[in-house]
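Quick question about two entries, pasted in order.
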Amino acid sequence: MEIKAPDLGVDSAEVSEIMVQVGDVIAKDDNIILLESDKASVEVPSSAAGKVTKISVTVGDQVSEGVVLIELDSDAGGDSQEASAEETDKAPEKAPANKSEGDKSHASEKSKDASASAATDTNASKPAAKEGTATTHALPDLGVDEAQVAEIMVSVGDMVTADQSVLLIESDKASVEVPAPEAGKIEKILVKAGDMVANGQDFIVIIGSDADASTNSADAKSDEADAPDVNKEDSSGKQASQTTGEPKQAAVKSTSSSNEVVANAGGKLTESQVNAKLTEVYAGPAVRKLARQLGVDITQVSGSALNDRILKEDLFAHVKNSLNTQQAAPASGSGASSSLPKLPDMSNVEIWGESETQDLTRLQKVSIPQLNYNTYLPQVTQFDVSDITETEKLRGELKGGMKAEGVGLTILAFIVKATAYALTQHPRFNSHLSDDNTQVILRKSVNMGIAVATDDGLIVPVIKNAQDKGIKQIAIEIGELAVKARDKKLSTKDLQGASFTISSQGILGGTAFTPLVNWPQVGILGASEATMQPHWNTKSQTFEPRLMLPLSLSYDHRVINGADAAVFTRYVAGLLADPRRILL
């Protein structure tokens, strides 16, 4: 019998761990494979019971729905159980060879009965709070402040195992399956599909399984017998290491100062240093790759999954906590309030007048924490104008042919190309300030964020490696990303990795605006509506009508000074006036 991958919720996922071996006899719903994607980690259960005869995948493989994971001999599982039952039934029929042996056997049986009775009495004398007790459980850290319940995967009365997926939670960033915190029977589900939930909110009531409590008790006794002179934390760590087959994190980590925590989360480690530390923890390949990308010291991250396995959500929570620690320090030092005061009571109509409450969209809600980062950035805006008369003529000559190919050529494609080239010549604008404010991290590739307005709010998809792409390819990607953004089909990868952002308000009117720097970037370029204006021609000594494009460059003054901003903005304006200069 072939056990195939179910619907994973993504196109493909990576095999992070194989949890069974050839020859193992497994039951239905036993976890067999651990899969990881950019969105979540999922343990795949077996859809049948039997003996594992073949494992069809290896760690690191990319699998999708319908791919064969393992093969089972379903008869082997049944035969084994039947044989065991037959041996149990036949055992009492064997007679002792003589009376003496019979007496010994009888005495032995009495001794066993007495031992069983004593064990029963001992268990009965223990508190029964963990056995058959209904416990209310709260949601873990979801990685965002709020998310929506997309699907409830179990029903009241269902029996679940620990870490079995029970809820599917969706935010604008990712979809995450919430596992059952313990094994047992579902007594009550406290949320419903469509609800907005937050970290720590109660979501399910489970009556704990007696079998699990008995197993835990037996495991504890076994540990005490094997290692009587070892303290409880060491014994627990040893047991977890044996269970998972992976190196175990230290149970108690030495505490460090807030500055050290921030430095660990900020990206100061080299890739070789991170790789060396990764061997000390229990995490899958996708999590390890993400740790390298974020520069996180993964030995400082606490795992939330079974046996302290580290998930991607744990990495995000670690970075988030570190950033909060960093931002709280200057706020408390200056005596400034970290947040605005509460609104006054506006129920008095005579004072405040009539009012109406409208809910923010999910996108607007999750954007608020990111926008709050601007409070901590000293931002300045540099204004300039570019004469794009000749560029617009070139666009007019090209757009007919491109339209026939299904490509919409807008002035934004020229702005992206010119800005990407300018960033390669002025790399400080394509950088990030280190957490300890002592270094500038220069990006070698230009990943250009493009602000797109949707019905739910502003969203910023990313054009990767814009410096290597021509205007036609950039125009194609702008069109594709805009459609995906408005249809709500952008993936997480489409929204990550931007090093600089462009916000164009060309069709909305206005003469200029002050865009907000999207932390951790250090600059953003705004483009307003191009208009015909009189421009003085020094050669002919006359005014000429020229198409002028207003530019607004906002920048982080900690990294960029005013003179450099003026030079950069003028440089971009010159490239837009004559795109042929990019070819030089």
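Here is the second entry:
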Amino acid sequence: MSRRTLIISPAPTANGDLHLGHLAGPFLAADVHARYLRATGREALLATGFQDTSTYVVTTARRLGVTPKALVARSAAQIETTLAAAGIDVDGFTGDEDQFVKQVLRFMEQLHAAGRFELRTVRLPYSPATGQYLVDGFVRGGCPRCLADGCAGLCESCGHLLAAGDLIDPRSTADPNDPVELRDARVLVLPLERYRERIREHFDRYGAAMRPHMAQTIDELLSRPLPDYPVTYPISWGIPAPFPEVAGQVINPNAEPAAWSIYCGTLAARGRGIPLAGDDELWRAGADTKVVYFLGFDNTYPFAVAAVAMLLAADGRYLLPEEFVTNEFYELDNAKFSTSRGHLVWGRDLVTEVPRDLVRYHLAATSPETQRTDFSRAALTRVTTTRLVDPWNQVVDRAQRVPQGAPLPVSAFSRSVADRIVERFAACYELEYFSLTRAAETLTEQLQRLAGRDVRPGEEGDFCHEVDVVLRCAAPILIDLAAALPEPGIPAAGTGPTSVLPRALPRLTGPVG
């Protein structure tokens, strides 16, 4: 029996609703993989949530003229609603509840008590005018490695850790004209270099699903000494650090992923009605769990390096994530989605205007798997109409001409064809070569083949059988159309029926506008 798979997509920051860039990235991919595993008889849990401790909550709230807490409350409801509207079937949705905070603190206190954290003096940008240290979303500048401009913490371009004190020409995001100086601060860090060889050994063993950009970055990161990773920051927004040597500081939000992921697993298991002996049971070493992350490339460092190091620092208590499937940025009209500039399409708005299956298909067909891809409303209309709606409705028209009411024979040849269809889709859905783009292409190829097929007398059963198999294989993407199936599931090879009962198929409605 296969292991239970825990699928995690990193929590978006609770500073707004989800736009298409979010959905086209990790969320749709994670949902499709979870649905595929279940359709093939395997147990899968899907977890995500929202993060309220990020400094971007504060910067967005300041820009909008609202309090951070009010922004979090509004954004949390929007994120959960949008995921449901897009058909992202989440088993565990984390938030800012007390139990999550307790999990983070319990995890951190265990490592602190074991002497895994060390007190270090670091140089941080400081605003004399406000009396505040500037980290992460509070400060931006050039990355000393790739020179790209961005906020501190993590470089979205090269994926490396971007210490605030190393920024080129640092400037406050609240006021770029505010003079900034570097000052010393004492913070707790996790010395990542202690774990570099063990992290390398882990990725040598696993990581088959890594895409080229992440694989390159992991090789770069592990080919040289790893810098100390900040566990606490001298700022006021976040989970208060319970350590006396850094009184008044908070937990670095980018140091939360390991603890957050453990909490995710607990919520997802409970959401599926799975009894647990302890809050970290799914993550315990020896547990029959396979952990898989679907994440944006920019989350590589905190989840694949820092979080793995923290799990290793727990002295064998926890298992390690085995696979990481990343994506690049999804753009709108050839520019990055931007909430601050109003350059975006809200996911919830689109699925109320366009049938949900069409949105999911288009995001799959244009998924930013290995390079940036682009969304436009005109492309959505053109792609979904020509590649999905028209060929599917032609298949429906052919199916309507098949006599109804009595079983029809299915030939051995058609059963072998069905096995090949399943095999083609499986190659897209299994982790090693996971690709939503190829799954969408495979669906279009099969629909066009069936739409153009000349169904001769005596072959009606074969036609209906193959249509059924294609729809079953497309079900992880086309969740509403698949509701027409009498029962869910993708057939295993060699299990095809010898007869099939013809049935009416629903038509697809094309996009408007």
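Reply: The chain has two domains: 4-336, 376-500. The chain has a mean pLDDT of 95. Hope that helps.
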